[in-house]
Write a structure and sequence with these properties.
- Two copies of one chain form a homodimer.
- The first copy, chain A, has 295 residues and is of the alpha/beta class.
- Chain A has one domain: Nitrilase/N-carbamoyl-D-aminoacid amidohydrolase (4-Layer Sandwich), CATH 3.60.110.10.
- Helices cover 26% and strands 27% of the residues of chain A.
- Chain A has seven helices and 15 strands.
- In chain A, the strands form three sheets. A six-stranded mixed β-sheet of chain A has the order 5-4-3-2-1-15. In chain A, strands 6-7-8-10-13-14 form a six-stranded mixed β-sheet, with helices on one face. In chain A, strands 9-12-11 form a three-stranded antiparallel β-sheet.
- The first copy, chain A, is globular, with a radius of gyration of 18 Å.
- The termini of chain A are far apart.
- Chains A and B meet through helix 4, helix 5 and helix 7 of A and helix 4, helix 5 and helix 7 of B.
């Protein structure tokens, strides 16, 4: 395995036509491969609009099994372009049992791993607890030809525990398919704080764990079908950070983008030699991390 | 208890004269109080140079018991100025048993709590494992008239576990006395990455926990007494961040500074309502956080 790998992040706006969205994704995978990418990371729920703005039972029609049509299509694209693909699927596991699931396709097209989103948000505009059962697969990196991928999804990005558990399991990099944006109802100072916080907490995981972080976010405005809110303006700015949290590459806010960036995995070892945090963890004093609150 | 409190951070350069250093600290506490501060946070080992650049047994002469001369002086200053003070002491607990300990003095001068640094670094220029036994008091905030202070020290700042444990124990804010700087041997790009990483990981704790973070760092150049290295240029930039990681105030790099900043504790509740991370932690899946590595 080479020390450097070329990582691509695909940032897209999504319309209502699932096939058209997936077609654009496949084209982006081809384009990424033609630019030398070996790993292509897609955004969360890239096949559809972000349907969690409302709680509507009809939206369960958008779900599909794994393997299923989406993973088949992504597998074909992975094999045709000889790249590893991290995709995102609204998974129907059984009637009434759904997950927000990331899938990993090896460059030969095989489905080599999946991760079911463990931390599920629920706040105005992001009613995910209605749709997604919290994942039951735990935090385990997926071994691929480009390294062990610590795949997490969106809301997981706010939880240092998830990043740490992936690192402790030997992940070579953290990968976050994401769908996050602004409420137009918030003022610009609040919007800036939210976006900065999002960068900061994920770059913080890179620092605390000495590990690269790859984030694919959605872009574009999506109206709230219920009309109850002002919708979501997804803030794009997909990015790739190195193991000191340094930004290696970043996409724009308001347009579809393909970000291709060389990531030097040898930096992980170099950084952890000067900042050996894993050496100094006081694991015998961490038991209360397993509590809800220490009261 | 009022929703807003005025927090002061004292950033100093330290010379070889312990009494002179402490005298400057007392003057800074007076000045902070005259500017309305209710809480004054001092930097790590503010009474002395950062002696851990070398391993020299004579340096144990700098240690003192708790309570002892330094805590007595800080208690007087706290009482005289009616402020809560977080100080830092090289603690001699017994012959051959030393700690790097933060102390909390209430505004009536009583010593209301101490925290013994739990994570101890050891890397070129920071030979702390020679001097400091890892703390055995665990992670517990100190209750004061200005709130529950989640006092941690320097190297702790790189560990999300420490910030989380303090938050789960009901800390109202995190407080980090610190001594960190650049090696002049590193190039400017590496220096910038290190300082950015330091800001980022601590601001990340603010975000992940929805909690203000108060950081007091040392400034000034200190030569390596052994002559083996190029010394340390402490990078100052003490700062105060709000519960979204937003920088509320920040000192300069290369001068002594007194930073006084109003912190609105009501923001904690407001931020945690929109980002209720504590609600969604998957505690039943975190057991491996207590492992050294998951191999």
């Amino acid at each position: 395995m080479s020390h450097t790998i070329n990582v691509a992040v695909v940032q897209q706006a999504c319309g209502g036509d699932k096939q058209a969205n997936l077609q654009r994704t496949v084209e982006a995978i081809e384009q990424a491969a033609s630019q030398g990418a070996q790993l292509v990371v897609l955004q969360e729920l890239h096949a559809t609009p972000y349907f969690c703005q409302t709680e509507a039972t009809d939206n369960f029609d958008l779900a599909e099994p794994i393997p299923g049509p989406s993973t088949q299509l992504l597998a074909q694209a992975a094999r045709a372009n000889q790249v590893v693909v991290v995709g995102s699927v609204f998974e129907q596991r059984a009637p009434g049992l759904y997950h927000n699931t990331a899938v990993v396709l090896e460059k030969d097209g095989s489905l080599v791993g999946k991760y079911r989103k463990m931390h599920i948000p629920d706040d105005p505009g992001y009613y995910e607890k209605f749709y997604f059962t919290p994942g039951d697969l735990g935090f385990h990196p997926v071994s691929t030809s480009v390294g062990k991928l610590g795949v997490l999804v969106c809301w997981d990005q706010w939880f240092p525990e998830a990043a740490r558990l992936m690192t402790l399991a030997g992940a070579d990099m953290l990968v976050y398919p994401t769908a996050i944006g602004w409420s137009p109802a918030d003022d610009s100072a609040e919007q800036k704080r939210q976006q900065d916080a999002w960068f900061t907490v994920q770059r913080g995981h890179a620092v605390a764990n000495g590990i690269p972080v790859i984030v694919a976010n959605r872009t574009g405005f999506e109206a709230d079908p219920s009309g109850n809110s002002a919708g979501i303006r997804f803030w794009g700015t997909s990015f790739i950070a190195g193991p000191q949290g340094e930004i290696l590459g970043k996409a724009a806010e308001d347009t579809a983008a393909l970000l291709v960036q060389r990531v030097d995995r040898a930096r992980v070892d170099a950084v952890r030699r000067i900042w050996p945090f894993l050496r100094d963890r006081r694991i015998e004093e961490y038991a209360d991390l397993l509590k809800r609150f220490r009261d």
